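G.,

No rush on this.
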Amino acid sequence: MRIPASLTRIIGIANIVVITVAIIGLSLLPGPPRPHAVPKAAGTVESSPAPSLAPVGQPPGVVATPEFARQVRANEAGLVPVLMYHRILRKRLASLDRTPDQLRKELERLAERGYVPITAREFVRGDIRVPAGKFPVVLTFDDGHPSHFGLDASGNPLPDTAVGVIQEVASRHPGFRPVATFWVNKEPFGLRDHESQAVAVRWLVDHGYEVANHTWSHPNLRMLKRKRVGEQIVRTERLLKKLGAPPSETMALPYGSLPRPKKAARTGSWDGTRYDFSGVFLAGAEPSLSPYAKKFDRGAIQRIQSNGKKGECRKWCSQYWLEWLDKHPGERYVSDGDPERISMPEELRGNIAAKRGLQVIAY
């Protein structure tokens, strides 16, 4: 069951308005104290190894067949929740904020229901290496806020930061990959000196997290001329390169607002430097189509705001949509466990783009 396109557009516009107002409000509110300075000695960071989980991106080791795909009810033409988070605060100051306990509870629920995190980069690549019968989920955090990540004096993620909570939940659920995407601005994680920024970015990249582009100063791109859109994106790309991050393959739109023309968010240049993203993400308001789907729009990928079912979030936020997917399991992306094949029920075969080069199994 899908929502009519006209209603989806209306909800999407309303969601962007709500998010814009909320972000402007939270930007005027005080944040938490900045995290402790990250250790400056590279050796200190290396002393904190990743959890003893399956290596990031390791194939599940299954060769799918029509019979096996039917057995696990694979549907790789289904919907994928891409969850959007902002600040993680012990006391919420704005509607977009989540507390560490709220984040922890949501991640625990995802783990218990069979969701496995992948990064936004893996998602747009179609590199979805999730065990058979499980469901991918993309955890995304906007703005590179201090509450997302920091290291203590021993080189471990600070408790109750986003990364601290992710690592904690993963330690209790070995199948729950501790990965997420952090879209950052000019001061990643509230750190102002280059060395601390570089240590933070290297830790995240080395542990399988994605650190990518959210523009330099978080403007509404729709209000800027194309040259300024390029400047906002390129300046952040240059910073990330200096900090040791790979070139961004994804970016999130500030306020979920597309520039004019729309394609300027995905590809362009400024001052001799080009950018070309594989995926550009909006701010709401429903699960994303499969990256294999014919109608998947790489320039405007849907996300879901993490929140309960109150006020404007009585529909269209994470609690609503996760419950909806539980009630409509036939609409959800279910992995066949084989990254070289795309499996789905026969009646959905026409929804899939055949040019991806992967073998298609329709049962």
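When you get to it, here's the other one too:
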Amino acid sequence: MRMEMEWSRKAAAAALLAVLAACGGGGDAAVSESAAGDSAGAVATGDSAAAGGPQASAGQPRSNLPAGPTTDLPPNELGRIMVLEYHRTGSPEGEFVRTLDNFRKDLKALHDAGYRPVTMRQVLEGNIDIPRGTTPVVFTMDDATRGQFYYRPDGSMDPNTMMGSWVSFKEQNPSWGPGGMVWCILPAAAHPSNFFGETADRETQREQREATIRKKMEFIVQNGHEVCNHTLYHARLDRASNAQQAMDWIGIGEDSIKAYLPADYDIVTFALPLGMWPDQKSAAWQGTYRDGKRYENKVVLEVSGGPSVTPWDTRWDPHSVDRFIVAPGALEAQLRRWEADPTHRYISDGDPQTISYPASQAQYLNRSALGGRTAREVPAAAAPAAGAAPAAAAPAKAP
């Protein structure tokens, strides 16, 4: 099922003007068509939000944390990792809808099976510093909806959101570690996809709204999560009238997010809306806008594709990183496959300066990407038992 949120041209343009004013930016941005995003059509109850819940505590260095559940599998740092893709919370579930209860179950299932969260920035930089016998997993959260992250009127974090659930889970499971969520934000989308459900001018004074947005962004950065650009308002890049319009949607979107970030924060990850590429494909990772301003996205996230290879793999392309959509039953099935046959599962050796791999994966080792790290060949994992489920083949990418 493909989700489509149809936001009106008028609403998108009005939101754009408000964001540009907040950024202090002048100039015109072309918003010539309805913004296509992720449909709430399959959602009966919409984004969850309710009362109660704790505030978050700051993250800790990984070295100060307990190891928690691990596997006894041999290292394989040329295995694949899941870059999970979430959108809305709600019910019934669909391809881009997850109930909050199942999101919480996802956290527990992954933690208990030896997975640990990392960001795309960490993957890109090869900074996968997790305990021996564990597997990195990236959580990407598209569209910045209210059910993902919300502060209540009294200033406390809503526990019945994805961020609230994450904070609670981490407090109960310190080995889960710091950070690990990549928030792909739409700064000028219509409510509730505007900085996680912020209200419009007519409902909340601009100063109050912007203070809340800044508070959210500060929490994301200070707690080891990552900020990702998802275009200004979820514009379909394949429908841009020309390359410049596509670059404006991306570049002005980045500007509008960075208005609420520390001056030195570098956004390195960009998520393609609906997985659609602009006609000039390179515009997804670099371009000019606003009379010569430049942007560069070192990572471009696809909308699908299955588990991803790592930066030390010859097949790694940071401008086309596969993601794993957490559709009903999909994550559970993948965990079962890798439990039955871990051949292609990334397993850490516990040393971020050493890249350990089995001989069967040696052909994929990109030595030029090691960046001073040491490559080490290790014995392979035992063959799966007879009758075990085969490893999943990566599904085809979305068009």
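The first strand starts at residue 6 and ends at 7. Confidence is low (pLDDT under 50) at residues 1-60, 386-399.

Enjoy the weekend,
O.
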